[in-house]
Amino acid sequence: MQIDIISVVPQLMESFLNHSILKRAQEKNLLTINLVNLRDYGIGNYKQVDDYQYGGDAGMVLMCEPLSNAIESLISKNGAYDEIIFLCPDGKVYDQKTANFLSLKNRILLICGHYKGIDERIREKYVTLEISIGDYVLSGGELAAAVLVDSIGRLIPGVLNNETSALTDSFQDNLLSPPVYTRPEIWDDQKVPAILLSGNAKEIDTWKYEASLNRTKERRPDLFEK
């Protein structure tokens, strides 16, 4: 899979994308992440990428020309994208189902908003999917892009050492994961549930499922209703 990311400040993502699981995914050639600096496509001597809003409201807007030039250049080099995603507060709220959907794609382009966003005409012409990571506002889309790359990348076969790990994560089946335990068996006078030490796989699976149901009902009744 290849994920290209257009940003005004791509440096914000460099450290995150080059460590831990994402680093290993790239080293295994399972995932290619390409950071694109929008200012490379800026206008004039000062590489301008933003301008004042029509209508007089406060806040700058990313201009059509630099974004269009960047997108067209990437398409001409590598072909069409499966999805062109704009990260914005008014997009579809991101969830595990969407992450699963995107992990099956071959080429994705992420556009990071900045300031007050991007010119609406770019959204209408190029964007195929608009995503929000929550009902709050960030200074730019870079953190949201990092969230998408991480959540998608870990689902690609071969990225995690144990591929079944991602399949048992919270939200995969609209349930929260059950409690988890590790050594020592007794800590601070608290014991690991005996069933987890029994070796009976069927009973352990039943316990985990019931624990997931109870935790979801208690903490996320909205998920439990689904």
Structural topology:
Blueprint: E1 2-7, H1 11-17, H2 20-27, E2 32-37, E3 50-52, E4 60-62, H3 64-78, E5 83-93, H4 96-103, E6 107-112, H5 120-125, E7 129-132, H6 142-153, H7 164-167, E8 186-187, E9 190-191, H8 201-219, H9 221-224
Parallel strand pairs: 1-2, 1-6, 5-6, 5-7
Antiparallel strand pairs: 3-4, 8-9
Helix pairs in contact: 1-6, 4-6
Task: Characterise the protein shown here.
This protein is an alpha/beta fold. The chain has two domains: 2-153, SPOUT methyltransferase, trefoil knot domain (Alpha/beta knot); 168-224, Orthogonal Bundle (Trp Operon Repressor, Chain A), CATH 1.10.1270.20. The chain contains nine helices and nine strands. It has helices spanning 11-17, 20-27, 64-78, 96-103, 120-125, 142-153, 164-167, 201-219, 221-224; strands at residues 2-7, 32-37, 50-52, 60-62, 83-93, 107-112, 129-132, 186-187, 190-191. Strand 3 (50-52) and strand 4 (60-62) form a beta hairpin. The longest helix has 19 residues, at 201-219.
The topology string of helices and strands comes to: EHHEEEHEHEHEHHEEHH
**What's the CATH topology label of the largest domain?**
Alpha/beta knot
CATH superfamily of the largest domain: SPOUT methyltransferase, trefoil knot domain
Based on secondary structure, the structural category is alpha/beta
Can you give the mean pLDDT? 93
CATH class of the largest domain: Alpha Beta
Shape: elongated
| N- to C-terminal distance | 31 Å
Number of E strands: 9
Residues in helices, as a percent range? 25-40%
* CATH architecture term of the largest domain: 3-Layer(aba) Sandwich
β content, as a range? 15-25%
Total domain units: 2
Sheet with most strands: strand arrangement: 2-1-6-5-7
Largest sheet: 5 strands, parallel
Spans where pLDDT lies below 50 across 5 or more residues: none
- Tell me the radius of gyration: 22 Å
Q: Number of DSSP helices?
A: 9
